[in-house]
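Format notes (please read before filing issues)

Several people have asked whether sequences and structure tokens are stored in separate files. They are not. Every record keeps both together, in the order shown below: the sequence lines, then the token lines. Line labels are part of the format and must not be stripped during preprocessing.
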Amino acid sequence: MLTLTENATTLVKSLTTQAVDSPEGGLRISSPEPNATTFAVAVAPAPQADDQVIIEGDARVFVEENASAALDDKVLDAQLDEQGAVHFQLGLQA
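Then the structure lines:
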């Protein structure tokens, strides 16, 4: 299952709190097809029916079914750049 670093947990919670006024909100990761290597990331008010829901601290991440297999052994990290934009990176779990 996808895991989150401490930075990713903090930034995901911050993004969802700012964009969605719902405790069910989270960051949704999706893919156009199974085993794809590119992913779309968006804030969502709630998970969709087939999403895998990952909860780390107060952060919620929804992984769409197509993306789930590709992200199963990954860790999500996030950083803020100098302009305040969030950049996500994927790595392999230890």
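For reference, the curators noted about this record: The helical segments are 6-19, 65-71. The chain has a mean pLDDT of 92.
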